[in-house]
Each structure stands twice: as C-alpha cells, then as structure tokens.
C-alpha cells in the first residue's frame, strides 16, 4: 500500500465534507477537520484524518450526538464544568479551552472538567490554543483500557495522554503532548493500515509477550514502567473521576458499541503568567531557555537538541509547503461518494 501527498487545505475540505455528509453541522465539521489536519501536519498520523471513517461510523450508528446542546457552568472564579452533550470531543475540548482562556485572563487561572464527551484527538491542539493567547495550557483525557499496569498481564488503563503548552516571546511555543503508554494506540492502528511492523516493546499479545506484529497487539505497555503507569492513573483521576466519569476498565470502548454514547471526561487548564511573575520576563525567559537548549552539544547521531514539540513544528512547516503524506486507502475513502 502506498502513500499520496495531499495539501492540508484539501484534507480539511475532504474530511469536513465526510462529516457533514454524516449529519454534522458545517461549523462543527470544520473544527473537527481542523484538529485532525493539525495532527497530520505535525506528523501525528495516528490522530489525523485516518480517524474520519471512525467518526462517520459513530455518527451514522448513533454513538455521537449530531446536534449537541453544549453548556458551561462556572462553579467558581477559576473553575467550571463543560457539558459536551455527547458531541464530538474535538469541538467540546476546543470550546472548553476557550472558556478556560477567558477565566484565566480575568482571574489568573482556570481549571475546567469536561463531561459527556467523546474522543477529542490530539491534545496539542488545545494547549496550543492557550499558548497562542500568551497563557500556559494543560490538557488531559482518559481513554478505554488498552495499557497493562506495571506488573500486570492484562490492560486496565487507557493511553491517557497529557499535554502542556508554554508561550514564548519570539519562538513558537513549547508543546509537550504525550501518551502515558509507550506509544499511542493510533500508531498501532496506522501500522495495521499501512501494513508495516512495529518496534519491539510497543505492544504485547494475548499472552503478555512483546510483538512486532500490529495485528497481534492485545495491549500496550506504560512508558518507563511504573512511572508511566503512575502518571496514567493521575490522568484518569483528573479527566475521569474528577469529571464524574468512569475510570479504567469501566470506560466504554472506542472501537465497539458504535450506537452508544461514550461519556468521556477531559480536563483543561489555563494559567496566566502575568498573575505570578512579570509577563515579559517570563516570555523572554522561555525564549532564552529554547535558545540555550539549542546550544547544548548534541550526542552522537544527533544534529541538534530540540525542545518538546519542535520536531513536530518543523514537520508542520514542511507539510504546509509539500503536502501531507497519507495512506492511499485513507485518501480513497475521503474522496469516495
């Protein structure tokens, strides 16, 4: 199976059209497509337009609300609850971060839990929202069980990603977006789609043994053993239990029960640096940190030391000029009537 290079504009149009065809409003479809293409541009193919077919299936079978009535309840000067009414998580998380940004600009910080949501895509998109407004952004979400706990032979937690975004004065923001598993499940799915093997240590089979065949993966492993396991549990508490949602093995499956709402929770936060220190000094300090990191002597086999998110930003610049590589099968689906 080959790949084709497609412009980001065409990808947004095609993905958006598929979602509109499944009954989503144009405004929501454009937001979802924007989040998906954001991931593809940054080389995070696992969360890109590859997922469009899945969302369309959920919309068709009733597992997503096509016309959600979003609502936000501010519960304190710096807190609130955003109700996604079982709509697409990309739209829900973006709206929740917008509310967090408003509160943080007014009162210094904001912590918002999200209820009744669904898969929201790459968290980097939402922390970047805050960073582009000069704020620090934080985002977490739980997912259905696919990761074995440290010392366990069967899955209990999800990949449970966490993301941070830090604004800079002149440089692009520092963006850390990572799963608490060794790898995101989407990368396994992409390998299945592309027909390629996966690195040893990414996943285990039904017997708990490491496998390089993406089709045999029954569960993923936490990164750094007990550290990734512990952080994954923290994410589940913040985005699940704190949001009044399920945890671990009680979270509904992404791939299954397509006619049922998933009721996922998220957690987003925005922090206004000006409430804690001189804003200009902070932004200039982030610039200085980035520049000094760049000056660190690279190890053998490396040309330069980057800050988190920088390799993805460089890929984004390349893909904006040259187009985004996607599997032919995905492109054919997006273009099909």
Automatic annotation (TrEMBL):
Keyword Oxidoreductase: yes
Family annotation (Gene3D superfamilies): 1.10.1530.10, Hypothetical oxidoreductase yiak, domain 2 (3.30.1370.60)
Entry's Gene Ontology molecular function annotations: oxidoreductase activity
Cross-referenced InterPro entries: Mal/L-sulf/L-lact_DH-like_ah (IPR043144), Mal/L-sulf/L-lact_DH-like_NADP (IPR043143), Mal/L-sulfo/L-lacto_DH-like_sf (IPR036111), Malate/L-lactate_DH-like (IPR003767)
Keywords: Oxidoreductase
Family matches, as SUPFAM superfamilies: L-sulfolactate dehydrogenase-like
UniProt cross-references to Pfam families, sorted A to Z: Ldh_2 (PF02615)
Protein's UniProt keywords contain GTP-binding: no
Family affiliation: Belongs to the LDH2/MDH2 oxidoreductase family.
Protein name in UniProt: Ureidoglycolate dehydrogenase
Annotated source species: Rossellomorea vietnamensis
